[in-house]
Design a protein that fits this description.
453 residues, alpha/beta, 7-stranded mixed sheet, 19 helices, 41% helix, globular, binds pyridoxal-5'-phosphate
Amino acid sequence: MSQTKFLLDESKMPTHWYNIAADLPVAAPPVLHPGTMQPVGPDDLAPLFPMELIMQEVSTEREIPIPEPVREVFRLWRPAPLIRAHRLEKALGTPAKIYYKYEGVSPAGSHKPNTAIPQAWYNAQAGIKKLSTETGAGQWGSSLAFAGALFGLQVQVFQVRVSYDQKPYRRALMETYGASCVASPSNLTNAGRAILAQNPEHPGSLGIAISEAVEVAATNDDTKYALGSVLNHVLLHQTIIGQEAMLQLEMAGDDPDVVVGCTGGGSNFAGIAFPFIGQQLRGGKKRRIVAVEPAACPSLTRGKYAYDFGDTAHLTPLTKMHTLGSTFTPPGFHAGGLRYHGMAPMVSHLKELGLIEATAYHQVACFEAGVLFARAEGIVPAPEANHAVKGAIAEALRCKAEGKSEVILFNLCGHGHFDMAAYTQYFAGKLTDQSYDEAELAMALSGLPSVPA
Ligand SMILES: *Cc1c(COP(=O)(O)O)cnc(C)c1O
C-alpha cells in the first residue's frame, strides 16, 4: 500500500486567501437594497459587519493576506491532513484514487473555525464587544463560540429549534466556550415573537434564526452579526482548504479529475473547489467540480436562480442565488447544516456559468455511505459530510463501471461525534427520506421579491 497521509509542514500553510472574484469571466450580479433596488454599498452593511470584512466581501483582489494572529490560531490544527482512502477504494473495488481533506481536526470538529477565527478577530480589532449569530446543527455556533473565547467577544447564538432539541451536546459545547444559546424562534426578538405568535411549536429554520441574529445586531451598537456561510468573505476564508489540498496532492504526485463537496450554504464546497476552479479559469486543467446537496432541501438542483432575501423576516439585502424561497421550511432531516433555503450567490453564479455541477441525494443513502466510509477509514463523518462521501463514492463507482482510474478529491468537512443520535436512528431504521412539500415550495417561490430586470 502506498502512502496514506499527506501532512503539510506548518511553514507551508497558506499566507493568503484566494478570491475567485479576481478570475471570473463575468462578475456576479450585485447585491441589492430591498427598498431602493439599487446595489448596496459598504455603508449599507456597516451596521452588521466590520469594514475589513465588508471590503473583503466586495474585493476583486486575487490574494488577500491572512493576518498573522489568525494564522497563529490556525496552527492549533492546520494544516489539516489530506488522506488517501486506500481502504475505501478497496471496499468499493474501484480503480479510482480517492483522497479526502479532513477538516474534522479543528477544535469544533468542522471547517467552520476557518472563518469564525478571522471574523472574530476583525470584529475584535474594530472594537466590537458582542457577536450575534444563528446556527443549524450547532457547528457554526460552536465554532464562533470558540473564536469568541479566544478574542474576548461575547457570543449570542440563535439555534434552529429542531436542532436545539436534537443536539443538546452542541449547546453544551457553545456554553463551554462561554457563549449563550437560545432556541429559535425565540421570544428575544420581534422576528421570533412574530413566528411564535403564528405557531408556538414552530421547528425553526435557518432563515428565521438569521432574522433574529440580524435584528439583535442591527438594534445594538456594540453588537455585530456573523454569518457562517453564504457570503463572499466566508467562502474566501475557506479557500485555505483547497490551497492546502493542492500542495498536498502535489506531494502525492496526483492531480484531481473530480472535486466533490457537500453544499448547505456553499462554504466548505467553495473552500475545497474555488482554488481549483481558479486554476482552470487562469488556463489550467479542466476538472469536474461536483456539489452534493440533500434532496429534502435542493436549492442548487431544484431552486430558482432569482433575487431573494437571505432570511425569513426580510431584514437582509437581496442577493441573486438559487433559492427555495425565504419562507421555505425544509423537513426536519438530520443534516441540520444543509437546511438553508438559498445557496451562496458566488456558488450559484458558478453554476449558472457552467463551471460546477450539482446533484442531490436522500439522507438514508448518505448515511449508508457514511457508515461504509467509517468502517473502511475509521472516521465517522458529520451527517452533512455524508453527502460528500456519497458523492465521492458515486464517482468512484462510475469509474469502476467505466474502468477509469480517475483521481477523486472530496472534502470531509467535519466529524459526526455530536450527531450520533442520528446514526442511532439510522441503525434503528427510523430515518426516512423526506421530500419537501411541493405545495409549500411553490408557495415560497411565488413569494419571491419582484426585482426589475
Ligand atoms: C455548516 C456545515 C455544512 C454546511 O455549510 P456549508 O457552508 O455548505 O459548508 C456542512 N458540513 C458541516 C460539517 C458543517 O458544519
